[in-house]
Design a protein that fits this description.
alpha+beta; about 625 residues; binds flavin-adenine dinucleotide
């Protein structure tokens, strides 16, 4: 069914956006997913245990490469200089090419390194811990740029043509965003029109914030192609095109400057009658958005790996500084607030890696649907690493706010904490903002319910269809719902030892989560889609439960390898304790919150209702500053 047909409360524009998003969803769940099961109240530990640690053979390949990459970075790349100048030197780009860094994910048969997802992530994480800009160059090319969709959907001819180029160092980019298209691709204005003989397409319009776009040899461009009529309704089409550098009509308009990752080559690109051959379509006409979403399922894993890499850097700085810096008679890491920050960094970093590398192992192994796991890893790690960097800045005090160059100039150690902060903030925005991740995860979490009972609420569904949905609901819900109230008496998780209590908690809380989600569906009906804060809290609970499970499962696996090492168990234990506190707060927030009152106040703010609060400042109106010193009236 269409999720949009029953949403009478939505505007036409909103429906259109949802329809485009729905049309590009992967509708089938043909492979198992730990997280999808969790949202249904089923704690399927068999899908996550034994935790898939990297095989010794694959690890050896990664280790050998990391040693060479580390040496190259140390000898050739000064991350503070790159940040200061805003440029990645050509010798670094060339050197990375010599190492094979632009072809890490390209299959060996085409001259690439043919890395597993795990080794690719490990390499990008190491680069991210050193130089955020360089990590984004690599990731924009290989996580969302042309190689990944080419690997998944390219024709043999396309692979033969482009893979060897990338393996030798050609760089690619991905162009979806436009001035009016951020999170919502339905507003896309860049068009591609077919020629009358069907042999080529002509692209027109403007793309914004295309990372690597200004230097890329090849760009994957998303464009609106002529709509099709399906069952009497207009179906919008978005198609992915491979566009090569030097094609007439490409105009690089402006290089964008950012708060962090300052050396990325990101900008505005005009496409003025840019003609590409039809064989440059990736996958097929109208499949562009679906391609982007599927590509991102795996592509998105680089970002949590990079976040974990940065978190490790923060942890090691905090460890040294927390002991070295003494104030009020004790090292700052021994004052309780400092200790809490440092402990949280260690536990959270462990959990970030556990989630990311579990999901990456599934990519390498195949046979699993990772869309929810990858989205959660991205959501969790980008938020967690931002908190870690913020905590590190607090621990470093004034020195955290000072640049590495300035610190060194006056003879202190040049920890680049302010650069880390500037570099890491973007992670909560790119490749799906936090809010869009909440929506995406919530939609998938509700999918089983929508497929079972959705047609009941669809005003356009025939009586026959409704009756079938009633029958399916009658078969599914009574048993399922009663099962959600059953305590998990038979599962003690004793193999987890001191972590067993956490496992039992996840088991019972997954059922509470499924019940709560179901209750909210009944309470709000189709309008639940509007209650994004409630959905967001439920998504966060699911994410914490996934992180807890991954941390416990990984601890158990590591312990099996090195039984005398208690560290993983201790960190998993601490992470679970902290996660439980957050989960309680989220459940409380579902039951009692100020969401409606906040929406009302926000509507009045947007309507200029509280302008008196803004008095007494110099107003930034985007074009300059104006005084706004009128007397503060409250009406
Ligand atoms: C440094 C950088 C690099 C980038 N690289 C690329 C690239 O290589 N290729 C590319 O195509 N794009 C790229 N982007 C674009 C990036 O993906 C977008 O910034 C991102 O998708 C968000 O879009 P937006 O900024 O227009 O925000 P908007 O979509 O305008 O959203 C603004 C805010 O509103 C929230 N919001 C939007 N819709 C909803 C909703 N329905 N419900 C709740 N909240 C909502 C968002 O979460 C966000 O907080 C890059 C951007 C930057 C800054």
């Amino acid at each position: 069914m269409s999720v949009t047909t029953e949403l009478k409360h939505l505007s036409e524009k909103e429906k259109e956006s949802l329809e485009v998003a729905e049309a590009s969803r992967e509708t089938e769940w043909t492979q198992p997913s730990f997280v999808a099961e969790l949202f249904l109240g089923r704690f399927r530990t068999d899908l996550i245990t034994p935790y898939p640690l990297q095989s010794p053979e694959d690890k050896a390949i990664g280790d050998e490469f990391m040693v060479r990459l580390e040496a190259f970075l140390k000898d050739n790349l000064d991350p503070d200089e790159v940040d200061r100048t805003g440029d990645l030197p050509q010798n670094v780009i060339d050197g990375l090419a010599k190492l094979g860094c632009w072809g890490m994910k390209i299959p060996k048969e085409y001259g690439g390194l043919g890395f597993s997802q795990i080794n690719y992530n490990r390499a990008v994480a190491m680069v991210a811990s050193y130089c955020g800009s360089t990590a984004v160059w690599l990731s924009a090319h290989q996580s969302i740029g042309v190689p990944q969709p080419l690997k998944l959907f390219g024709s043999d001819a396309q692979k033969k043509k482009y893979f060897p180029m990338f393996a030798k160092g050609a760089i690619s980019a991905f162009a979806l965003t436009e001035p009016g298209v951020g999170s919502d691709p339905a507003r896309m204005t860049v068009t591609a029109e077919p020629s009358s003989d069907g042999k080529s397409w002509t692209i027109n319009g403007t793309k914004l914030w295309c990372t690597n776009g200004l230097v890329a040899d090849v760009i994957c461009v998303m464009a609106k192609t002529p709509s099709k009529t399906v069952n009497g309704r207009e179906k919008r089409q978005i198609t992915a095109f491979i566009v090569e550098k030097g094609t007439p009509g490409i105009e690089y308009v402006s290089r964008c400057e950012f708060m962090g990752i300052r050396a990325i080559q990101n900008g505005v690109i005009h496409f003025n009658n840019v003609t590409v051959p039809s064989e440059n379509i990736l996958w097929g006409e109208g499949l562009g958005l679906k391609l982007a979403l599927i590509t991102l399922n795996t592509g998105r894993l680089t970002l949590p790996a990079a976040s974990a890499g940065m978190s490790k850097q923060a942890l090691q700085i905090a460890k040294i500084w927390g002991k070295e810096r003494e104030q009020w008679g004790a090292p700052i890491g021994k004052h309780e607030p400092g200790a809490v920050k440092i402990a949280n960094m260690a536990a959270s970093t462990f959990a970030q890696e556990a989630m990311t590398y579990y999901t990456s192992a599934l990519v390498d192994r195949g046979g699993a649907d990772i869309r929810l796991e990858a989205a959660m890893a991205k959501l969790f790690c980008s938020e967690a690493s931002w908190k870690i960097v913020d905590d590190l800045m607090q621990l470093r005090g004034g020195r955290g706010y000072e640049t590495a160059r300035s610190l060194r100039r006056r003879g202190e150690k040049g920890y680049a904490v302010e650069r880390m902060m500037r570099d890491s903030r973007i992670n909560r925005i790119i490749e799906g903002t936090d809010e869009i991740q909440h929506l995406f995860i919530a939609r998938e979490a509700l999918d089983k319910h929508m497929r079972t009972a959705g047609e009941i609420m669809n005003p356009k569904a025939s009586m026959d269809v409704k009756m079938k949905a009633f029958a399916a609901s009658a078969r599914f819900y009574p048993f399922w719902y009663i099962g959600l109230w059953m305590p998990g008496l038979f599962r003690r998780y004793s193999e987890y030892g001191s972590l067993a209590g956490h496992m039992r908690y996840i088991d019972s809380t997954s059922r509470k989560l499924a019940r709560t989600l179901f209750h909210q569906m009944i309470k709000f009906g189709p309008k639940l889609e509007r209650r994004q804060m409630i959905l967001g809290r439920l998504v966060e609970i699911g994410t914490e439960l996934f992180a807890m499970t991954a941390a416990c499962a990984k601890a158990l696996a590591l312990e099996k390898e090195a039984p005398s090492e208690t560290g993983p168990r201790e960190l998993a234990d601490l992470f679970c304790r902290e996660a439980k506190l957050r989960i309680h707060a989220y459940f409380d927030g579902v039951a009692c919150n100020a969401d409606v009152a906040e929406s009302k106040v926000a509507a009045k703010v947007l309507d200029h209702g509280y302008e008196w609060v803004e008095k007494g400042i110099m107003v930034d109106d985007g074009e300059g500053f104006k005084g706004n010193f009128g007397p503060p009236k409250t009406s």
